[in-house]
Please model this.
Amino acid sequence: MRIVVISDSHKNYRIVEKIIKEQSSAKHIFFLGDNVADIEDFAFEYTDRTFHIVSGNCDFFSTYPVCDLAKIGDTSILFSHGHTFGVKGSTSHILSAATTRNCKIALFGHTHIPHISYENGVYIVNPGSCSVSRQGPNTYAVIDIEKNGIMPIIMEAKF
Model:
């Protein structure tokens, strides 16, 4: 099962649309905040996919939670924008939250810098920003979840 992870689009819904179209085999789309309006319409357009959305620090009037859980097959995923976990300083708090909830994957954004690590049995993934990168090209993440393992990859949003 392929999932796509997008964060920090900051009013660039066109790049979000291009990512969704490019990753047509992904049945689950995770949007980690900072302009949830950029993803909402696509949830109605692509009814064959499941959208998982959380609010970021710039989503002032959003009704989405700042942190949520999803289960894809046997894999539990904690996902958050990350600002409430202090991810700009360390991933230790989001790792602790994921471990406590028996998650195999912890997703966060907020830093605009892509990151993949594996600690204490948890993949920690930040897709970076799809439109306002603070380090290198604009990016998003693809994660393949199969019976034989989990493979997260950072993809360049070069559209």
Q: What stands out?
A: The longest strand covers residues 139-146.
